[in-house]
Design goal:
Layout (H helix, E strand, L loop, with lengths): L1 E6 L4 H13 L3 E7 L19 E5 L5 H10 L4 E4 L6 H6 L2 H24 L9 E7 L24 H20 L3 E6 L2 E2 L8 H11 L3 E4 L9 E2 H14 L5 E4 L7 H15 L10 E4 L14 H7 L7 H14 L1 H10 L2 H9 L7
Parallel strand pairs: 1-2, 1-4, 2-3, 4-5, 5-6, 6-10, 7-9, 8-11
Bound molecules: nicotinamide-adenine-dinucleotide (NAD) and 2'deoxy-thymidine-5'-diphospho-alpha-D-glucose.
Length: 359
């Protein structure tokens, strides 16, 4: 039995990862440590909360005493560290929480595992692993003809969010180089799929299309993202945990790079199929005031993970978007609960009020 600590497991990717692991691996026990911020919800884990191989602990990764106790009490040998503040627009409105959670929180966790695994360990060091989940945004922004990000691309983060994630990546790397902590890092591109909070582009577009509300496109809509279906991300993380090389980082991407306007238009087309009486949904698209410091283009070179670990994404953009839209159409109750619980309307007014969205 492996004892896995998932931090941030009540959020979007963490909850998908826990579900994926419980479904595919029998020899695993999971402890989920999550502070339940606005972005986390136990609604995301309702179907698995009674699984006897799963345990939820409400708590903050900045709390050294609590993290130490959890790692000791549950005999944790593997940490998969998702917990973070994750939304770029919120980091522009209020960066302080990003510094606290993403940098101090990661530092606190590393200190816990350093003291337990290096100084007071019961098992050989080879049995431990700290896997840090990071983002392609640490590499900054690409020009239209520039080669995609690879693992050795220099860091050049542009938002408080990406700067805080870059700092956390450096700390994880430093704990490996300095203390010999067995770490791996993955930098992934934009995820989408079930259980994503509708502050992010894809669920926001689906939700607004469902409700006939304006679909806000920042700036000229020609920014490019590399879209990764969340289950493909979970599979990649598990492959790295099993077969990745200690001390290495791996890029994970979806092998597609539409512009924002293209992906919004594709979603509107799919919504026309699912709700023909509300077609055409692209009439809802509105160009609004841009995000400050908006990165123009991300693209991931995934040769390393593909050659070393045999991972490539299974979903195409079309298949992943269909699955995602169908999931949101079937989970209207989840959407309502999550919006009420997490003060969604307040965020909508704060972020979109000043962008000039017309009703
Ligand atoms: P999310 O915002 O949906 O979830 C974050 C989770 O962390 C929430 O459950 C929240 O309650 C929890 N959390 C926040 N602060 C905490 C704290 N101090 N202590 C304990 N728990 C805390 O995020 P996500 O989209 O699932 O992203 C997960 C990770 O993946 C993040 O590290 C993010 O940087 C990274 N990532 C995300 C994407 C993406 O497209 N969403 C892409 C690449 C990497
Ligand atoms: O690239 C990986 C990153 O992807 C993750 O590290 C972050 O946690 C995750 O939030 C995401 O960051 P983005 O800023 O790229 O995602 P977001 O969904 O916020 O925006 C995607 C693109 O769409 C971006 O260019 C901004 C644009 N956008 C976004 C929103 C919310 C719009 O045009 N309109 C919107 O209303």
């Amino acid at each position: 039995m492996k004892n896995v600590l998932v931090t941030g497991g009540a959020g979007f990717i963490g909850s998908n990862f826990i579900r994926f692991l419980l479904e595919t691996e029998q020899e695993i026990r999971i402890t989920n440590l999550d502070a339940l911020t606005y972005a986390g919800s136990l609604e995301n884990l309702k179907d698995i909360c009674t699984n006897e191989r799963y345990k939820f602990i409400k708590g903050n990764i900045c709390d050294f005493a609590l993290c130490t106790q959890v790692i000791q009490d549950f005999d944790i040998d593997t940490v998969v560290h998702f917990a973070a503040e994750s939304h770029v627009d919120r980091s522009i409105e209020g960066p302080a929480q990003f510094i606290e959670t993403n940098i101090t929180g990661t530092f606190t966790l590393l200190e816990c595992v350093r003291s337990i695994w290096l100084n007071n360990r019961k098992h050989p060091l080879d049995d431990f692993r700290f896997h840090h989940i990071s983002t392609d945004e640490v590499f900054g922004s690409l020009g239209i003809n520039e080669a995609s990000f690879h693992e050795l691309t220099p860091y050049a983060p542009n938002s408080p969010y990406s700067a805080s994630k870059a700092a956390s990546d450096h700390l994880v790397r430093a704990y490996h180089k300095t203390y010999g902590l067995p770490v791996t890092i993955s930098n992934a591109s934009n995820n989408y799929g079930p259980f994503q909070f509708p502050e992010k582009l894809i669920p926001l577009v689906i939700l607004n299309a469902l409700e006939g509300k304006p679909i806000p496109v920042y700036g000229d809509g020609k920014q490019i993202r590399d879209w990764l279906y969340v289950t493909d991300h979970c599979i990649a993380i598990w492959k790295i945990l099993n077969n990745g090389k200690i001390g290495e980082t791996y890029n994970i991407g979806g092998n597609n790079q539409p512009t924002n306007l293209e992906i919004v238009t594709i979603i509107c087309g799919l919504m026309d199929e699912y709700q023909p009486n509300h077609a055409p949904h692209d009439r809802l698209i509105q160009f609004v005031k841009d995000r400050p410091g908006h990165d123009r283009r991300y693209a991931m070179n995934i040769q390393k993970i593909s050659h070393e670990l045999g991972w490539t994404p299974r979903e195409t953009l079309q298949s992943g978007l269909r699955k995602t839209i169908e999931w949101y159409l079937k989970h209207n109750q989840w959407l309502q609960t999550i919006r009420d619980q997490n003060d969604y309307q307040h965020w909508v007014i704060q972020n979109y009020g000043k962008r000039g969205v017309k009703k």
